[in-house]
Amino acid sequence: MDRTLKSLSILLSYPTGELKEAIPDLRAVFESDRRLDAGTRENLAEFLDELDAMDIWQLQERFVEVFDRSRSFCLNLFEHVHGDNRSRGAAMIDLLETYERAGLEPSTVELPDHLPTLLEFLSLRPTDEARRILVDASHIIEALGTRLSRRQCRYASIFTALVRIAGGVSDRQALAALLVLPDTSGDDLEALDESWEESEVTFGPGVGGDCPQARDLLSRMDGSRPMADHNEGRR
Fold it and tell me: Do 123 and 104 form a contact (C-beta atoms < 8 A)?
């Protein structure tokens, strides 16, 4: 198991009392991972210090404020690729089937493209495979980290670590396209309402549509089966 990817998955999940108890172990994992440079390890250590100093209610309130109230910081990766259009449904089904073929049955209410779920899956895959998949998603991950850094949010350190593990390689054109989109503040209720007023996500085969970036990400996760064989269709 890749303990760093597993640890980052834990940090991006809804905070619980178990997270507080695991802080010393998480600290040891990050300190020992040489894929992370000194600055990244230091930022993660400072983030863990902050988590340790806050009570669980503060942690949960901040998590919801950061990740659940703004589409700009949504942890569902396909949200940033193609929002709620119809092709997302088929991509989600393919991703769930990929997990199941690998023997992972996500025991979560989150969607299959939820980043903590993906990281847990990657923590169990061969190192080269996990890195390739992170490279495919790195423009989304880096965009999220950049937005968090703009708000001086320490959660940004997690995304910096993921980019480091991926090798610091991102599709610069795709990254730029994501970063030109406006960030929606969690306290701008009118903007929030507008950003979420989109078409319903439809899940299931035969929904049509195609998303090259989602297709590439999924094809990395299932090289044994071409994506052409499929119908493209929190809490």
Answer: no
Residue 150 backbone dihedrals phi, psi, to 5 degrees: -60, -30
In whole angstroms, what separates CA 62 from the centre of its chain?
A: 17
**pTM for this prediction:** 0.78
**Domain count across the chain:** 1
Whether 70 is in a domain gets the answer yes
Nearest in space to 144 (alpha carbons), one of 169, 116, 171, 179 = 179
Digit-coded pLDDT (tens) for 201-214: 433 333 334 445 55
End-to-end Cα distance, the chain? 27
What's the maximum distance between 2 C-alpha atoms anywhere in the chain? 51
Residue 233: inside a domain: no
Give the residue carrying structure tokens 């994501």: 178
What's the domain range around 102? 3-196+206-219
Residue 104 covered by a domain: yes
Average pLDDT over residues 135-146: 94
CB within 8 A of 160, min separation 6: which ones? 40, 43, 145
Nearest to 1 by CA among 29, 22, 21: 29
Residue 39: inside a domain, yes or no? yes
The label of the residue with tokens 């795709």 reads: 174
User: If you search the block for the tokens 């965009």, which residue do you land on?
Assistant: 143
The CA-CA-CA angle for residues 25, 131, 122, to 5°, reads 55
